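Consider the tokenized backbone below.
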């Protein structure tokens, strides 16, 4: 069994910046030489998330609006006394830091409208490294 690990480097704009990384992940899978297995897309960090959603402008805005309603930006979170980004940590915990995808015949298996996005949840712009690890044969 082979394991190949790569990184995607991003510069984000800050809170709720969503970046479609589907093409980059697919390219990493193609170049891995692994025909069948699994690809894990992971953000090391406590204030970012990996999600799947259709890359349609209205839907992406709907997602941001719903997330803001579920976990609103407000004063009074206990963590804000330390770093003023409690909302970032709460949203990241809710969404998750990784997604896994089957690799079949050298290709990432995903739905037609299922794109892979990095979601910046920190309150400020950040440099990010997304780890993509492909395991299989």
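A designed sequence for it:
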């Amino acid at each position: 069994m082979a394991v190949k690990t790569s990184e995607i480097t991003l510069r984000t704009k800050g809170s709720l910046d969503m970046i479609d990384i589907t093409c980059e992940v697919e390219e990493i899978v193609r170049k891995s030489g692994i025909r069948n297995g699994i690809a894990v897309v992971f953000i090391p960090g406590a204030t970012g998330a990996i999600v799947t959603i259709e890359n349609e402008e209205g839907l992406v805005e709907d997602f941001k609006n719903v997330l803001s309603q579920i976990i609103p930006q407000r004063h009074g979170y206990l963590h804000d006394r330390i770093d003023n980004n409690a909302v970032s940590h709460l949203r990241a915990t809710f969404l998750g830091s990784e997604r896994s995808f089957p690799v079949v015949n050298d290709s990432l298996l995903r739905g037609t409208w299922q794109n892979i996005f990095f979601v910046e949840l920190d309150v400020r712009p950040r440099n990010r490294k997304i780890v993509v690890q492909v395991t299989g044969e």
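The longest helix spans residues 57-70.
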